Amino acid sequence: QVQLVEPGGGLTQPGGSLRLSCAASGFTFSSYAMSWARQAPGKGLEWVSGIYSDGSDTYYADSVKGRFTISRDNAKNTLYLQMNSLKPEDTALYYCVKERTRRPNFDYDYWGQGTQVTVSS
DSSP code of 20? Predict the structure, then answer.
């Protein structure tokens, strides 16, 4: 069955960096776009970033553009999110999400369990 496992996350100060990873299994990882989404305390779900199945193109929410970088290693079936210049408003539960198509299309069918990122001084 499809599994998306997200170790990592953690606590950092404003201006700090964290790297999230998502280990995928149970499907042909290289055939599907992947995305990251997040949910802050008391707020709705927010899409963060998406990447084509082959990694050829990426997309970012305006709130993270220039600070976050999404990438993937199809040989390792792993998705990454490098987060730099973190702000307190980046504090959220971050989810790895599988898309139904090769292109990110906000058409999700599987979610990871989520990993907590906290940015605080």
Answer: E
